[in-house]
Amino acid sequence: MEQQYKQVNFNLNGKDVSCVVDIRCSLTDMLRNQFGCTSVKKGCEVGECGACTVLIDKEAFNSCIYLAVWAEGKHILTLEGLLGPNGELSDIQQAFIDEAAVQCGFCTPGFILTGYEILETGKLYTDDELRKLLSGHLCRCTGYENILKAVKKVMYQRLGKTPEEA
Amino acid sequence: MYDIKALYEAESTAHAVQLRLEHPEAQIIAGGSDVLVQVREGKRAGKALISIYMLDELRGIRIDDEGNLRIGSLTSFSHITKDPLIQQYIPALGEAVDMVGGPQIRNIGTIGGNTCNGVTSADSASTLHAYEAIIELTGANGIRRVPIKDFYLRAGQTDIRPDEIQTAILIPQDSYKDTAGYYFKYAMRNAMDIATTGCSVNCRLSPDKGTFERVRIAYGVAGPVPMRAPTAEAMAAGKPVSRETVQAFAQAVLQDINPRDSWRASRALRQHIAVELASRCLTESVHRAGGAL
Ligand code: FES
Ligand code: FES
What is the DSSP string of chain B? Predict the structure, then answer.
């Protein structure tokens, strides 16, 4: 069988882009190999660990079980897209550093993107709700508590509240 | 890279049907959270795929002309959970699909894909059985509707013909009207796990809330296909709303279900859980229906 290629047009981190992909590529493959988005990690590649998480039209997806050709017309956000124009860290990235939520860092980009999706809802969540919302990620270094703290911290910051007031 | 032989992308429902006829050997792929994993595992490696994922016409939820709650087959689990019509008429379904996998899986996973796999542990399956959902299939000769109990043929096998794709799942008005339900998933972990047993119950009470007019119950994983417990349902209908009825109903499910031993759980444990879940789910359904026990 002839190899099959297709042109895909989408928006990556705020910029309209297009490229020709092998139809066998996952979205992870395309983002890493054709756009250099190495924050998109390959952990399990079967949708279990969340290391490859990206936001597609503002919702978190495991890019390893998403065909690259399905990116057509979508808005895709990777960790690279969270940086400010001069490389400034976003509030959620800074919170991960401050709360020591990063150990080896392999799960971090995925967690941060899911955290970003959670925070963008502008809602106040309980710890149990946050745990459920973050449950699609595995951290082999098992730093879950600090990850939860980091997301929580930004949640309160953005809502202008303290945990006591909530 | 996936080991895929060829990819055919459907541009409309009609085009999907045409692709099915042109490529009878190809596998349909909706969200891909099962199919792509099976490709990776080698189980479906080297096959051709027909992708219907980009068909937005198969997404969304509305009440159709006949009063059915119509759920487009490609509607994701998370969109079902968030949908106002689901929350109003059949919250048990929104809650059930909120227990599938983890958040990212619920964004990609589709209710149509979940039912077409014919997997009995699917979190949606027991609730769809308990509400007597109708599966809408579109093929070369138009639309065919199949009651969900007939759609599941045996474990892993559903009644989808070579020219068809599943286009919607309908919840008949009589199933959701004046009815309250509850789903309970019993699994070993709180997330990213497959149900040991899932139980979905719904009931309709008399206007004075004193009598069970109708009770429906369905289990996932209690047998090779999701199944109802007709003896228990018949037993409860017409009985007073009381703890005794709930207990008798829960015990009666053992006359209907036939769980198996597996590494996830023994038959004895599954039977015990089935009775306990029947009781809890009916109790909660009564509360939701405005009744008291
Ligand atoms: S690499 Fe995608 S979920 Fe693990
Ligand atoms: S920090 Fe190492 S995997 Fe999470």
Answer: ---EEEEEE-SSHHHHHHHHHH-TTPEEESS-TTHHHHHHHTTTTTEEEEE-TT-GGG--EEE-TTS-EEEETT-BHHHHHH-HHHHHH-HHHHHHHTTSS-HHHHHH-BHHHHHHTT-TT-HHHHHHHHTT-EEEEEETTEEEEEEHHHHEEETTEE---TT-EEEEEEE-HHHHTT-EEEEEEE-SSSSS---SEEEEEEEEE-TTS-BEEEEEEEEESSSSS-EE-HHHHHHHTTSBSSHHHHHHHHHHGGGT------SS--HHHHHHHHHHHHHHHHHHHHHHTT---
Complex ipTM, two decimals?
A: 0.94
- Average pLDDT estimate for B145-163: 90
Mutating to test ligand 2, I would choose from A49, A99, A104, A114 the residue with most ligand atoms within 8 A of its C-beta, which is: A104
Nearest to B40 among A46, A133, A137 (CB): A46
CATH number at residue A64: 3.10.20.30
Let me know if residue A164 belongs to a domain: no
* B51 with A69: Cβ contact below 8 A: yes
Q: Is the predicted pLDDT of residue B24 greater than 90, yes or no?
A: yes
Task: Based on the fold, state whether residues A98 and A155 are members of the same structural domain.
Answer: yes
**Residue A95 belongs to domain spanning:** 91-159
Model confidence, pTM: 0.93
Residue B99 is predicted with a pLDDT of 87
Segments forming the whole domain that contains residue B164: 59-174
Distance from Cα A33 to the centre of ligand 1, integer Å: 16
